[in-house]
TrEMBL record, chains A, B:
The lineage of its organism: Bacteria, Pseudomonadati, Pseudomonadota, Betaproteobacteria, Burkholderiales. This is FAD-binding oxidoreductase. The keyword Phosphoprotein does not apply. PANTHER family: ALKYLDIHYDROXYACETONEPHOSPHATE SYNTHASE, PEROXISOMAL. Keywords: FAD, Flavoprotein.
Length: 530, 530
């Protein structure tokens, strides 16, 4: 069963080992285990639904509670403290586009806002219900079947509510993969990926969801938008691009066709260490600009490298590795690069060899597949550490952006410094570390993680998060970064969107959404503020 | 000096050899050399400008005539017959964004429509002036400087009026290339490429203009839209996508930043022949789906292959080649594939070897670099054949679309048959042939050329073209293709846009353009009909 107030499945616990805990305590002080509210306590404050009865709409309190929030830190605070705030007045689980249309009409008749719900994994406040009007949550859970697989065009069509594992399983049965693996993969959905412009860990090979999304159907208050598939087109505005990143503001994506590829014959993840950040950063830029057919490049800064090695357990083995690396010039400030390649074995291995040669040019030390395979094994498990940290009294939050190369180092430093200063004003320290999660010829995404102590009461913890979020978002914008590279905007990032879109850009988005949703009932308060 | 009523520079003539002429005569009958109007005759009917005087606006008749039309066949008919019809009332050559803004204000004060003019190479009627209101043509000619080259991010910023050769020369001086080579390259402009979603001959390596356009500045009646550059972003609507394919409807792109790459160390174009279309088509699909790092795949059908060999001259050499090919199984219905690779020599040659191996699996016969290099040499000269054919009394027109793989063969057959039937109704034959100009894992572009006889009088030739254009456009839409893969929509394709966008899709485009251009003065009548 899925956890109602944390990440993932209740049967999966990833523990923090004593060494890792000691590592954190030394940096930010000992944590104090908080007390969580029970599900019953959280549900107790939920008010009666304001929606009229409808055969497709479930107004049961527990169903409404389970669809009220995502996985952002303020969402967690509301869940853990049993202070859900606004929850949807009802949740529907449509099984067809017709039912979605009927539900939109029902919402209009009820004067209700509509919040689409995919996997509930948003970390940017995409799912919050409206306080001012009744809210209907439309969960896409039951729209998950593969409708069609065209192996000639390598196109597959799915109900947009299909989750990552379900989608990959349906494709794998035919020898295909989408290759889209965000960290939320186990719960997030195809539709959610599209409307938040998601990026997977192996986007270097498979592309971002923008490149994978080929067409589909959107049900909007103004009618149905059918987007046909073409390999490419010069026919005016690309309608796919209106749906990508629309975050529910113009309608509900019910059906999506995606570009798939044959399962790779071969896949490997290797680790390379560099003596310091500057050489590592130069190496990954050269690698990205060499356009080698790799599937992943992921570079951790020195503190993240140290943290990953501390969290790995196996203290003795890590000690041996570090000693060996030190002899090869990778000591205190060393940075770890993970390099993945997938596909035809010959091509993939040639790409890896070329990558290692470039890395050697910056004194990179290739240590083989051990740590890379370990990363692969844990790629969807590391996120469970948020649960473990919470139990020890620590919050883990992340932010991410992307910038052209000249801005990358400055942004990383500014984001980490802003976090330290923001929490310093609350008398707290932060353990901040960063990796470049996606590498492009033009620049990189900068993904920072913050570990800091929970106070244990809702108001104080919300205030800490607000200070942190505001400070790092300001730092991102001031550094010239986008407010999100892969998580989307939601409610949490919306105040910083104008910095990159400009007034006129936001106005264009408003005009667009307004044409599809003249009453402004689709996911109000998200993405573009009124 | 540039030809005022045909393609290219007056000093360049590409002649049709006697064999080629005989080849055409045998197929569609002898042509009769038409009589062209002189430039003075064409200008004589131009009425006085309806615009008020402005220091930036040239109302000289000849300047207005030279900016009245593009390169579509109906544009040629108007030029050749000296029946220009509506011409702009004035032409401005702004040197800054400030001047563009001033000109937009001036147009508003004059109640004038605004037609942006790049290189005047449109083949879809993008440049036609308005009949109902005064028209100001804003030519971007003087906005052509490279403002910035950021070699760290591989980004270059240019005035949007820069032409292909000028852009490449400015980059080449620093060791970089954009790699965007549409057939119109010699005259078409960066801004034109962006707003019509252009695709270059080597887009397999460099990407379409959509992938190359990183940001820029658009001056619109509602204000300035500045689009910053990011390597990627999940922050809502991608503003670049609102500008791409906008065809002047929302404003004027004055400045564009593009993703450039280092000049390749190595570049080669090879030819491979296949015994028939089916094996050739299967081979290119396999090649595209193998995602080899090639720079070009271009497959001619049997009639195009035969035509290219006939046009090549060198009858004896072609005879030897054909004999040699026949011995290897490529006889009557043989199809020629051009394969290009660029970049690092080792990687490019490995990709070519892998490509030839795949081709062999479909009985493809690799004949080396001769014809490929010949194609490279003539890549921007073949378009001059339109002039030569005209002098012999023949029209050459083209259409193009793109489709998922299952539709490719049917569309090709339907387009060629529609052309034959349409001209048959005029008692004329057509010589129609096709190539797949751009190959994608998902499908291909289908690019058809039609050669048919000119009647020599304007009305008859316009009627022939209208029948042809309408029939092939209907065939494209009925086959499930996009109305344009690389030429854009303009006025000529606008009636068929709703077939792919749907009513709601068009309405969304209208709402978007209306927000930037509430008075509807920007390039009216193009892209989206009122």
């Amino acid at each position: 069963m899925r956890r109602w107030n944390g990440w993932g499945d209740e049967t999966i616990d990833v523990e923090m080992n004593a060494d890792a805990l000691g590592f954190l305590e030394a940096r930010i002080g000992p944590g104090q285990a908080p007390t969580d509210a029970s599900f019953e306590q959280a549900c107790a404050a939920i008010r009666a639904s304001r929606l009229s009865p409808h055969p497709l709409v479930d107004t049961n309190t527990s169903v409404r509670a389970l669809h009220a929030l995502g996985q952002s830190l303020p969402d967690w605070l509301r869940l853990r403290h049993g202070r859900l705030g606004a929850v949807p007045d009802g949740v529907a689980f449509p099984e067809s586009a017709d039912q979605v249309r009927a539900l939109l009409a029902y919402a209009a008749a009820n004067g209700a806002a509509v919040v689409p719900y995919g996997g509930g994994t948003s970390v940017a406040g995409h799912l919050t219900a409206s306080l001012d009007q009744p809210t209907l949550c439309i969960a896409l859970t039951r729209l998950r079947a593969m409708r069609n697989l065209d192996t000639e065009s390598q196109l597959a069509s799915f109900g947009a509510g299909v989750t990552g594992p379900d989608l990959e399983a349906q494709l794998r049965a035919h020898g295909y993969t989408l290759g889209h693996f965000p960290q939320s993969f186990e719960y997030s959905t195809l539709g959610g990926w599209v409307v938040t412009r998601s990026s997977g860990q192996q986007s270097l090979r498979y592309g971002r969801i923008e490149q994978l999304f080929a067409g589909g159907r959107v049900e909007t208050p103004a009618g149905t938008l059918d987007i046909p598939t073409f390999p490419a087109s010069a026919a005016g505005t690309d309608l796919r691009e209106l749906v990508l990143g629309s975050e529910g503001r113009l309608g509900i994506l019910v059906d999506a066709t995606v570009r798939v590829t044959k399962l790779p014959d071969y896949e490997a993840f290797h680790a390379v260490f560099f003596p310091d950040w500057d050489s590592a950063q130069r190496a990954v830029r050269t690698l990205a600009q060499a356009r080698l057919p790799l599937s992943m490049l992921r570079l951790s800064n020195a503190v993240e490298t140290q943290t990953m090695l501390a969290l790995a357990g196996h203290k003795r083995l890590v000690g041996v590795l570090e000693k060996w690396l030190r002899l090869r010039g990778c000591g205190e400030g060393k940075c770890m690069l993970l390099v993945g390649a997938s596909g035809n074995k010959g091509q993939a291995r040639a790409a890896l060899r070329a990558a290692f040669a470039i890395a050697r040019g910056e004194r990179g030390v290739h240590i083989g597949k051990g740590l890379g395979e370990r990363w692969r094994h844990n790629r969807f498990r590391n996120v469970y550490l948020r649960n473990a940290a919470w139990r020890q009294g620590y919050a883990i939050d992340t932010v991410e952006t992307a910038l052209d190369w000249p801005g990358v180092n400055g942004a990383m430093a500014a984001i980490e410094a802003a976090a330290a200063q923001a929490l310093g004003e609350h008398g707290e320290r932060v353990h901040a570390y960063t990796h470049l999660s996606h590498l492009y010829p033009q620049g990189a995404s900068v993904y920072s993680t913050f570990v800091y102590r929970l106070a244990g009461d809702y108001e104080t913890d919300l205030a800490r998060w607000r200070s942190l979020k505001s400070a790092v978002s300001e730092a991102i914008v001031a550094s010239g970064g986008t407010i999100s590279h892969q998580h989307g905007v939601g409610a949490d990032h919306a105040p910083w969107l104008e910095a990159e879109k400009g007034h006129l850009g936001l106005e264009a988005m408003r005009a667009l959404f307004n044409r599809f949703d003249p009453d402004g009932r689709m996911n109000p308060g998200k993405l573009v503020l009124p």
